[in-house]
Amino acid sequence: MGFAIALSGGGARGAAHVGVLCALEEAGLYPAAVAGTSAGSIVGGMYALGMKPTQMRKYVEELAEHTKLIVDADYLGIIISAAELFMGKPITFTGFLKGDRLERYMDKLTEGKSITETKMRLIITAVDLVSRKTIAYTNTLEGVSPQKNTVWKTDVPISLAMRASSAIPAVFRPVYEEGMVLVDGGVTDVVPVELLLGTGEEKVLSVDLSGNYPLKPRANIIDISDSSISLMLSTLTEYMTIGEKYRITPNLPETVSALSFDKMVECMEIGYEAAVQCISSIKAALM
Asked: What is the mean pLDDT of residues 40-64?
């Protein structure tokens, strides 16, 4: 039963994708192509390289226990920007987290491989704020159909594509590459189903984590940014015409934010249960 899968963003919530993949494989369902945005790009990228979901579980558990492996706050940048603001100078601050540790961690997991070395079709999305276009990184341009406001690129380190796709505005620094200013792919493509369809895939399953997560009491600036983005994404998803055969929407706790890395194991288990409960419907939809 050949099919493709599209994985949305969600920050730490993206661990739910690992649970979904575990449930699918237990049911004998193996995606032949994958597209991912933000957190979905990381899970999708590792899957396309051949990593089993059971292996991914171990890394989710590791990151939930040792968040510092991927979190590097830009303390100096914060101090400098405060001084710039005080002196009335233009603020140069671009993100609370540098993203360097995340990229190094991803580079280690992917063994420095190029996106062209994946074992199946892979699409990772980012957004270039200069050209205002979606940048679709893929392992092969074969079968790709031109799409409006989309630039296809290949032959880049897969860790770079993951890092660019995961650059949540204001949270992570953008990625500056070849004259582009790259941020989270979810800004224009919440769940990259259409890109898979544009490569000739006909049966697409999607996993959407872009729920409308309300603002926490006593919210900080990160919470405000996360809540604003989740509202934008859920609204976009509601009004977009998406051509997938079936969509899985794990019901994640409202208390879990994009940076709730300590909740990743919980998100993974919820994703697993959500997929298990609808396996019969998924199989019927993909027939």
From this structure: 97
Provide the token pair at 227. Answer: 């809540």
Domain boundary assignment for the chain: 30-270
Q: Would you say 208 and 249 are in contact if contact means Cβ atoms under 8 Å apart?
A: yes
> What's the pLDDT at 131?
97
Query: Among 234, 73, 100, 124, which Cα is nearest to 174's?
Result: 100
Q: How far is CA 75 from CA 39, 103, 164, in A?
A: 24, 18, 21
Chain centre to alpha carbon of residue 132: 19
Element (H, E) at 53: helix 53-65
Fold held by 30-270: Cytosolic phospholipase A2 catalytic domain (3.40.1090)
Contacts of 189 (CB under 8 A, 6+ apart): 37, 125, 127, 134, 195
- Name residues whose C-beta falls within 8 Å of residue 80's C-beta, 6 or more positions apart in sequence: 92, 93
Q: What is the pLDDT of residue 250?
A: 95
Q: Could you give the angle at the alpha carbon of 28 between the alpha carbons of 22 and 29, nearest 5°?
A: 75
Q: Above 70 in pLDDT, residue 227?
A: no
- pTM for the complete prediction? 0.92
Q: How many percent of the chain have pLDDT more than 90?
A: 70
Q: What is the pLDDT of residue 110?
A: 96
- The counts of H helices and E strands in the chain are 10, 11
Which of 38-42, 91-95, 189-193 bottoms out in mean pLDDT, i.e. has the lowest?
Answer: 91-95
Q: Amino acid letter at 4?
A: A
Q: Do residues 168 and 258 make contact, with C-beta atoms less than 8 angstroms apart?
A: yes
Q: What are phi and psi of 236, to 5 degrees?
A: -60, -45
- For residue 186, give both structure tokens: 């979810």
Alpha-carbon distance of 92 to 88, in angstroms, equals 12
**In the prediction, which pLDDT does 276 show?**
98
Q: What is the pLDDT of residue 283?
A: 95
Q: What are phi and psi of 4, to 5 degrees?
A: -115, 160
